[in-house]
Write a structure and sequence with these properties.
single chain, alpha+beta, Restriction Endonuclease, seven-stranded mixed beta sheet, five-stranded antiparallel beta sheet, 18 helices, 15 strands, globular
């Protein structure tokens, strides 16, 4: 830690109860975040209402508002508190400041950096200190503590990393810019300014989290109907959430019956982050060359087979076809030294193995026969059609569950006397029942992929 960093740490630690008074835009940020919900609900139905980016911004804003509203009655636990052990003598990784809210019990991890060269370290260090806290207190959740990274300089890439952690880690993060006024080499005054992470949520990244072709699939088929299918869906959803996955689980009759021998099926879709990275870059390329309309039309399309990304440099790699001796075409990477994300994404489909292990253990204990497969989810579901009676139960987990319920909140807020939302009809009187319906799921995915019939048909008239 530099001399200035240690002075900032000591200054704030000695005055930790006054932390809110140092934040010059605290009330402005609170007011701005408080308007996010009414602004979200006021989004016009044009183009289908709230899109993926607007839904994720709403989720992130609620988390940050929760963090801001906990910035009171703060007491210091300690400064330079070792939360990790290297197993060796000497220096141990230590949190700059650890404090807590005496009313709510929420803890605050403050990490102080003084330059662009070191502020990127705040992400990894805060994650490490969180691990240290969780080792001390098993069961400590992401909402039991708030990250407060403080730096004299900020770059876009670091802010984007915090936005990613907030959205996927369900974590409250309040990054702050720090201005220091010195007098005789001592700190006279500190001004902190909350940094807004909402602009860091890029639309191409948000859309790729729900694009049809960014989900790995697992289908489990049974010869007879499962009597407690809803309970089993809840088990799968809860287990998948605990494992950190985002996605959905469906149950119905004749799902994939043309592919697998048994008529009763669970279909599980798990978002693959490597496929989403490829899709996000694909969408960004289209937007850069053809604009946002063409980008949105691209969401529902397949991933490009001739496009790849090098894992190490994150640079685009374009593949070419080479004629092999046996006459088969095979894609080749132009730079053989690169680490292909496309190839890694295929291997990472097996990352759902822990989920399958939990399911298989239960099936084995119940002595139920089954067959498994991995169908194309988009082709499978769209072939059934809207309103099909074949799908009986739907469940969600992770970020997908949050997104579904926020979209449901929007529709119910605008529902008319007949129970029809602005975009999605037949909402009924019970939002929880509607959330688990087949039509709600298909409508949501169609809206996120810009293929819902309520959205503008850009192919016919792009001027609209």
């Amino acid at each position: 830690m530099s001399l200035l960093e240690s002075k900032i740490r000591d200054f704030l630690a000695d005055r930790i109860g006054d932390l809110p008074n140092f934040i010059v835009n605290l009330e402005e940020s609170r007011a701005k975040l408080s308007k996010v919900e009414p602004n979200f609900l006021a989004i016009p139905p044009d183009d289908g209402g709230p899109n993926a980016r607007e839904i994720l911004k709403f989720i992130l804003a609620k988390q940050n508002l929760r963090g801001i509203n906990s910035l009171y009655d703060i007491e210091l636990i300690d400064k330079e508190l070792p939360l990790l052990s290297t197993g060796k003598s000497g220096f141990q990784p230590s949190a700059d400041i650890l404090a807590y809210n005496t009313e709510l019990g929420v803890m605050f991890l403050l990490e102080i950096k003084r330059s662009a060269k070191t502020e990127r370290e705040a992400v990894t260090q805060l994650a490490a200190y969180t691990s240290g806290l969780q080792n001390k207190f098993w069961g400590l959740s992401s909402l039991d503590h708030v990250w407060i990274p403080i730096s004299t300089e900020w770059r876009t890439i670091v802010k984007a990393a915090f936005a990613n952690e907030a959205a996927w880690g369900n974590r409250v993060i309040l990054p702050m810019d720090c201005k220091v006024e010195l007098e005789a080499d001592e700190i006279k005054k500190i001004k902190l300014e909350l940094i807004d992470l909402l602009p860091e949520l890029d639309e191409t990244v948000a859309c790729s989290q729900f694009a049809w072709h960014c989900f790995d699939s697992l289908e489990i088929c049974f010869p007879a109907e499962i009597p407690e299918a809803r309970t089993f869906i809840e088990f799968i959803s809860a287990t998948a959430s605990r494992l950190g996955f985002s996605g959905f689980v469906l149950y119905g009759t004749a799902l994939g019956a043309e592919i697998l021998p048994y008529p009763h099926s669970f279909v599980i879709g798990v978002q693959n982050p490597l496929l989403s990275a490829l899709k996000s870059r694909q969408l960004q390329i289209v937007m850069d060359h053809a604009g946002i309309i063409e980008m949105r039309k691209e969401i529902k399309k397949n991933l490009w087979c001739n496009h790849d990304i090098d894992f190490c440099s994150m640079k685009d790699i374009w593949l070419h076809e080479t004629q092999q001796d046996n006459g088969n075409n095979k894609s080749q990477i132009e730079d053989e030294r690169c680490v292909s994300i496309q190839e890694m994404s295929q291997a990472s489909a097996n990352r759902t193995s822990p989920l399958w292990d939990e399911i298989r253990f239960r099936l084995k204990s119940m002595g139920i026969d089954y067959e498994i497969g991995s169908p194309n989810i988009h082709a499978l579901l769209t072939s059934l059609g809207v309103g099909t009676p074949l799908l009986e139960h739907v469940g969600f987990f992770g970020l997908m569950q949050q997104a579904i319920y926020e979209r449901l909140h929007y529709e119910f807020h605008h529902a008319d006397e007949h129970g029809d939302g602005l975009i999605i009809g037949d909402m009924g009187n019970d939002p929880f029942v509607r959330a688990s319906s087949w039509n709600m799921f298909l409508d949501f995915m169609a809206l996120m992929n810009y293929e819902h019939d309520c959205q503008v048909d850009y192919d016919e008239d792009e001027s609209e």
